[in-house]
Structure formats: C-alpha cells, structure tokens
Amino acid sequence: MTEPDELKPADLEAYMQLHGIPGEILHLGVPTPTVEAAAEAVGTDPERIVKSILFLVAGQPVLTITCGPAYVERRTLAALYNVGRKKVKLASPETVSQETGYPVGGMPPFGHRSPLHTLIDYRVLEKPDVYAGGGADRTLIRMSPLTIMQAAQAQVLDLLIPPGLGSDADID
User: Fold this and answer.
1) What is the pLDDT of the chain when averaged over all its residues?
2) The whole model's pTM is what?
C-alpha cells in the first residue's frame, strides 16, 4: 500500500483561495516545529501561536486547536465523547500525516485531506490575530482566530488543563 502524497503549503494556499479564507501564508527561513520556535520566528508572544493537535478518541480522529504552551485536557475529550480517558490517545506522526496529509510541526488547523471533527479552545478566540501551522515546518499562516474557527467548522469549548495541574495531570 502506498502512502498518499504529503500536502504542501501550496495545497493549503489553494484550499484557502478556493474557499475564500482570508489569511497570509508566511514562508520563513527557520523551522517552526514548536510554539516557542514559531513565536521567535515571527517575533510574537507564544500565546498567539496556535497548535493543531490530533487525538484518536476511541480510534476516531479529533483535531484540537489551542494556543501557547498549554496542554489539552484529555478528560475533557473523554467526557465529550463519553469514553474513558484511556480511550483518548495522542495521534502518532504517521497517523497525523495519514489523516491530515500534513506533517507534525506544520499541520494547519483546516484544509486537511478529509474533514476532521475539530474542537477549538475558547481562549484562541480572544486573540486579535494568531499564527498557525502553514503546511510545513518553515511555514505559518497569520489570520483571525474567528476565521480559523469558521474554516475548521470547530466546536468551541475549554480544552485546557485546569489551573494548578502540570503536564502529568493525565497520567492514569
């Protein structure tokens, strides 16, 4: 079985044009695989960097969109889909590429190989504009968070770990 071709920033740009999605694709001279690297590359606060993270919930892909270095609360996903927390897994890089067409570190919040059920943290919508994955590790898109929500047809909710809990909060 051969893998489908990986999508590129040009594919994302074509998707945006086809669907009338306003935004600016930024081709950068440095890789932006992390929130911190992306923020430094464009000279902004890490809270204005949007992360698109793919989870498998009971085996089904679910895309989450948050900003900054925050962690997605797996208990929220488990409760939303009425499954146990152990049924919520971070997708592997291979699964991300297969489901979205884009690599980890460059995956945009929309324009994937096929539509994904998408959840967006309400805090993303509080920003005037944000930077998100632009289809490759040296590309970002700058746009309004409302545009991201609409383009991804995302459901808005609180996706973050409650204050005071660290990254091991989801260890069983």
Assistant:
1) 90
2) 0.89
- Encoding tokens for residue 81? 């889909």
Asked if 50 and 67 touch (Cβ cutoff 8 Å), the reply is yes
pLDDT in tens, 12-35: 999 999 999 999 999 999 999 889
Contact 130, 141 (CB under 8 A): no
What values do phi and psi take at 19, rounded to 5? -100, 10
Alpha helices in 33-161 (DSSP H): 35-42, 74-80, 93-100, 145-152
Give the count of alpha carbons within 13 A of 68, CB side only.
14
What does the block give as tokens for 22? 């306003």
Whether the Cβ atoms of residue 136 and residue 96 lie closer than 8 Å to each other: no
At residue 72, the 3 state secondary structure works out as: strand
- Alpha carbon of residue 93 to chain centroid: 13
Task: Give the helix/strand (H/E) hosting 1.
Answer: none
CA distance 105 to 93: 9
Structure tokens at 34: 């992390």
Q: Please state whether 58 falls in left (phi above 0), alpha (psi between -120 and 50) or beta.
A: left
For residue 67, what are the β-bridge partners? Answer: 50
Q: How confident is the model over 73-115, as pLDDT tens digits? A: 999 999 999 999 999 999 999 999 999 999 998 999 999 999 9
